[in-house]
Amino acid sequence: MVSLDASELTTRELNRRIKALAEEGAGEIVITNPAARHNLAVGIRQACKITIEGSVGYYAASQLDGPEIFIDGNAGWALGENLMSGKISLSKSAGASVAASMRGGEIFVNGVSGARAGISMKGGTLLIAGDSGFLTGFMMQKGRIIVCGNVGDAAGDSMYEGTIYVGGEVGSLGADAMYKEPTEDELIGLWAELERHGVAGRPRFRKIVSQKKLYHYDTLERFERTLI
After folding, report:
1. Does the reported pTM lie above 0.90?
2. Which of 11, 111, 114, 217 is most exposed, with the fewest beta carbons within 10 Å of its own?
3. How far apart, in Å, are the Cα atoms of 109 and each of 89, 171, 222?
4. Cα–Cα distance, 32 to 17 (Å, whole number)
5. What is the spatial distance between Cα 108 and Cα 91, in angstroms, rounded to a whole number?
6. Spatial separation of the C-alpha atoms in residues 217 and 108, rounded to whole Å
7. Which helix (DSSP H) or strand (DSSP E) does residue 106 occupy?
8. Distance, CA of 213 to CA of 71 (rounded, Å)
9. Whether 20 contacts 43, CB under 8 Å
10. pLDDT in tens, 188-203
11. Angle, CA of 142, 148 and 149, to the nearest 5°
12. How many alpha carbons lie under 13 Å from residue 86 in its C-beta half-sphere?
């Protein structure tokens, strides 16, 4: 195990040290005193384990391909942005746009998340133990979003593919989103996912998918031009 004190390094120096250690095959990297700084532990392409002891700021653990990261605290906007593969686990709550443009892997938020969770998501699984804000799954293209609590208004707005599961109440559905009854096999799989992350309860999830009416924009465009 290698420990790095973030208070002794600039953000750029810290990220360079993390990348170098990952490339050298360090088994586990522990970062202390992160002080909620932005852009921590980004752009890592090697499999490794990283523990951050404290809260992080914007774009933490973004553009990753392989690492497993545990953050013992809260996170600002866009945690795990463009995650390719690997795992991110957050012990508390996340700000807006968690898992933005996520392409693979897994992100677990053991609290609540802000608006636009999973915006433009393209793969992987985002699991939120608490509530999620408005526009959850906005322009989602693939993957799964699992929210154990409530979600705000415009859930699944303009989503193309992918699935949103909600254990609580839904403020409203967004454009081109609709409810679909989950199968028993889906529910059993979701409950197993919760158990794996230590989340208690077995919510009777509601399932949100795309109506796919916006799929063929080229066939609608001529009507918009006429209207204009």
Report:
1. yes
2. 217
3. 6, 20, 43
4. 14
5. 8
6. 34
7. strand 106-109
8. 39
9. no
10. 999 999 999 999 999 9
11. 115
12. 28
